[in-house]
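To: structure desk
From: M.T.
Subject: fold request, one chain
Message: Could you run this one when you get a chance? Sequence is below, nothing fancy, just the single chain.
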Amino acid sequence: MSNIVLGIATSHSPLLTIDPSYWAQRSEDDKRRKSTYLTDGRILSYEEIEAALGAPYAAEATFENFARQSQQGQAALDELSRIIAEAQPDILVIIGDDQEELFDKSHIPAVALYSGEQIIMFPRGQVTQNMPEWRARSVLGYAMDAAHRFPSSPQLASHVIKDLVADGVDLSVASDVVDPQKAGFGHAFGFVLKRLCSGRTIPCVPVMINTYYPPNVPTPARCFEIGRSLAKAISGFPEACRIAIVASGGMTHFMTDEKFDRAFITALIEHDEQAIRGIPVHALRSGTSELLNWIMLAGAMEAHDVTYSKYIPVRRTPVGTGIGLGFVAWSPRSK
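Reply: Done. Structure tokens follow.
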């Protein structure tokens, strides 16, 4: 039988793929944003946030701090990469969100698994014109500069699909990338495969959650339950494989909420199921919704404990817009 040897949760922000000299370009995007979602449910423009809060983070929104935080982020990614290499997984199960890369608004499934023979990336760098410089550079970090191909594990995928359906999880299933110039895999998956695998080619099974697009966004409680079912299905795979589960995305953005992020990581460390399942739906919108990927992973990690965590609150502007960068690893609990 298979063994879940590792759990990993990682932010995949563009900031982690570009030089800190480009972070200021993202700051200008923050200032133009008319709808920034806060964890308390409010939706405010940059001007409204500034009017309400003033500029409490002016001392943090500097190139010198960006450079320091960029080094911290890369060091955390290096550590996750080292942990994965040490665990020597045979297969990665990657939980991520799709932002109109493989799916589009004609069909956005709540939860989907991919059972095809190859992971083929959507080549955004080839099909999108006039990208800002930071975006063009981030495309490289997401392996979306071309239709790169990575191996998948259709055998594990088929087994997991069958077991999840038997366990009452309603799934969509994708089994092919027909034309990557029109649709393919996106940043949540490319970031993990390119940045965290240390140059090693590891077959993967993509699990996709619709975190961004109402009305069919799964609740935190439902994601947690599916995570439980996912772990049971993986553990029941009859081949003797070492399997790691990776959640890609998060944490709070585009308004950094350090208190919220740190409380969430504490809940992961303490296996506080009630706190994790009970996160209000209104707190998980826009980019922050990617924490649903972490919540599904948390449901799968009940027999594992957090052995590494790092949090970096990035404030790109004086008002505090930006992103919380989070990195967590779970290892099997000692018996």
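Reply (cont.): The chain has eleven helices and twelve strands. Let me know if you need anything else for the meeting.
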